[in-house]
Every structure is written in C-alpha cells, then in structure tokens.
Amino acid sequence: MAAERALRSAPPHRLVDAVREVLCGDYAAKAVDLFVADYGLTVLQSACPSADRPEALPVHGSPAGRAFGAQEPFTEVRGDGRVDVHLPVTARGDRLGVLTVTMASAGQAEECRAELAEVAQVLAHEIVVADRDTDLYLRARRRDRLTLAAEMQWQLLPGRSSARAEYALGAQLEPAYAIFGDNFDWSATEDRLMLYITNGMGEGVEAALLTTLGINALRNARRAGIPLADQACLADQAIHAHYGGRAYLSMLLLDLDLSTGRLLAVDAGSPRMLRLRDRTVTPVDFEAQLPLGMFEETDYVAQEVYVEPGDRMIFVTDGVYGVAAPGGERYGDRALARAVTSTSLLPAAEVPGAVLRELSGYRGQALPEDDALVLCLDWFGRPRPEEG
Q1: What is an example of a GO molecular function annotated in this UniProt entry (predicted)?
Q2: Cis peptide preceding 58, ω within 30 of 0
C-alpha cells in the first residue's frame, strides 16, 4: 500500500502530510485532516489546523464524533456536494482520533471507503510509534494546559482503551487536566491480563510521585514473572522503604486467566469492583488488606473469583462512589449501579466517560474535588478453535 510505505518513511512530525500527499495524489482527495481526541474525551482537535478546517469538533454531536464513538466510518455530505469521510484512527482498541478525508462525490467516497479505513488504521499505529520522537500529537490532545501532576500521570498510563478477542477495556480519569494520584495500568500476554486500579493519596506532584513509584515497582515485579500477591509485597516494600509509612497507595490488583475466566485479586485499599451480569449489578467484595507501603513487609494474599462470558466489570475509586450531592447525600453503590445499568449498551471504551458525565450532574459542579477514575472491562471469553 502506497500510504503505508509513505507513512513508514515519513518523519514523525509529517505523518499527516504524508497521508495527505498519497490520498490527494492516488485517490483524488480534496482535503485530509487528522483530529485527535483530547484528554477529557470532549473534543476532537486538529493535529494540523488550517484555514478551511475547524480547530476542534465536539466528540458528542458532530459527524466526526459519531465515527469516533461508533468506531465505524461515517460519510457526511457537504453543502457544496463534496463528501467528508470520517474514519476512526484506532490502534489495537486504543481510540486516538478521526481521519477526515474530503472526496469530490458520494460515489467516489463509497468506492474507496474500505481502503481509506485501512489507511486510517495504519496511521494510528504510526502515531503510537511517532509519539516516542515528537510531541506534535500529544500537544494536539490538549484542550488546556496540563498541571505538572497530570502530565506525570498521563505519561504513566498504558492508553485509554484496548481490545482483543477475549476482552475490551476502557478507562478515564477526571479532572483530566488536573489529576493527582489516581491511576490505572494493564498488560496482557497470550493467556493473562493484569490490571492495577490505584486510588492515589495526597495532591499535586507529591501524589503523582507516589503513584509513579508504586506503578513502576509493580511493573518491575510483573516483568520478572512474579505472581500477583508477591507483586503487591514487593511494591509495598518499595513504597515503605522510600516513605517509611508516611504515604501509601490504595490499590486493587487483578490477574485474569484468559483461557478460563479465573480472576485473582489483591484488594489493598479502596477501589471497588461491580459486576454486571444478565442486567443485574452486584458489588464484588474481596477481603480488605492493607494499602501498599503502610507497614513494613506486609504479606498479601490473592483471592479468587470466576467471570463468565458476557460479564462486565466496573472498577471505581472513591472519587466516584464517595462524591456528595449539593444536599450532602453520597453517590454510593445504588446510584453507581444505576449508572452501570444505564450504560449497559455502550461499548467498554464509552462507559467510563458516560458514568463520569452522570457523576458530574449528580455533584452539581463541573470539576470534582477529588480524582475520579472509572475502568470498564468486558469479558467475552476465549473463542473456541473451529472444528474441522
């Protein structure tokens, strides 16, 4: 594919230019632009603003936003007869933005729509690689300036969504531009998915530093092939060695066997898990153990539950379930269960944002006083090999 060759040979900051040159030359496109989703998932911002394109488009209520949300190409007929084809730019389930290609007519757009969608997918993978060498696409994600603590936290995250045949993941942090210590991390191998949901302690850079130490201690143990409970022990020792018990991390650690649905969990603090099964929401309680770093050489034990194909798991920090309405009433498990049920038809990547928008309406103010984290995991089960 000419576009793929052009993208791989282009400098990291010229990916959009390379795509534009190929699509205009080989497909007779009239215009090409890349819109990147901002950290708050509220707008799609142009990576290369121009006079004939808007700088930002709403995620909710725009044709480009429709393609982003549905993860399907969407064709928009313009007033001058031209056609905008909006194509999701997504790498392994991580939704980065939308590629908008203007064609001369609907017929021309339909004829090459499948190839354009493939170009958008190749572009997504190249953007992930390019982020190592340029800030261009990271800067396009910013509607406002990030605090230093938020900068540290976003750089620590694996992405905001991920998908495989066995599962789909989505997560979101608020306030997106001023988060402190809440965090999530995941990593998958052929047979396992490991998840960490962190309820941070403190504020600002100190909170971000604490979370960074904890997450990297867990990654170090995980990459050494150490079991989940021992990962918690080693992270506990690392945090206590540095802070001496003055600071600690509340965390839920999870290890899902992708072949059986067996879920191991270490509940080291306050993050909560709810399971949606057959339209019934049930809190899943584990034995509470001490936060990481509170005391020296704490022993941790992994507990076991099984998930079934079709289950949806929602994980939240106290910035969600502990939020108070203007009248003082806590959000709590009942309101959270209603939010989980009302978003049951949305894909996993869309659920965290929808829950956080409902939470914003509940508390009666746009920005929360504490970090709020929602992570959604849909479990499909491992497809059986075809007989033959």
Answers
A1: phosphatase activity
A2: no
Which stretches of the chain drop beneath a pLDDT of 50? 387-388
Q: Which three-class secondary structure string do you get for 120-137?
A: HHHHHHHHHHHCCCCCHH
**pTM metric for this prediction:** 0.92
Angle of helix 15-26 relative to helix 106-130, nearest 10 degrees?
Answer: 160
Separation of CA 39 from chain center: 10
Cα–Cα distance for residue pair 369/140, rounded to 1 Å? 26
Q: Are 237 and 290 in contact (CB under 8 A)?
A: no
SS3 of residue 191 by DSSP? coil
Residue closest to 352 by CA, chosen among 327, 333, 334, 378: 378
Asked whether 344 and 310 are in contact (CB, 8 A), the reply is: no
Q: Which two tokens stand for residue 103?
A: 């064609």
Q: What is the predicted pLDDT for the residue at 228?
A: 98
* Three-class secondary structure of residue 375 per DSSP: strand
Cβ contacts of 337 within 8 Å, gap of 6 or more: 274, 281
**What pLDDT does 1 receive?**
76
Within 10 angstroms of residue 385's Cβ, the number of other Cβ atoms is 6
Taking each helix axis from N to C end, the angle separating 106-130 and 2-9, rounded to the nearest 10 degrees, works out to 30
Q: What burial class does residue 36 get, using C-beta atoms within 10 Å of its C-beta: 0-12 exposed, 13-18 middle, 19+ buried?
A: buried
Residue type, 10: A
Rounded CA gap, 146 and 263, in Å?
A: 35
State whether residue 376 is helix, strand or coil.
strand
95-106: per-residue pLDDT in tens? 999 999 999 999
Q: Considering Cα of 321, then 324, then 327, then 329, what sign does the dihedral take?
A: positive
pLDDT value, residue 117: 96
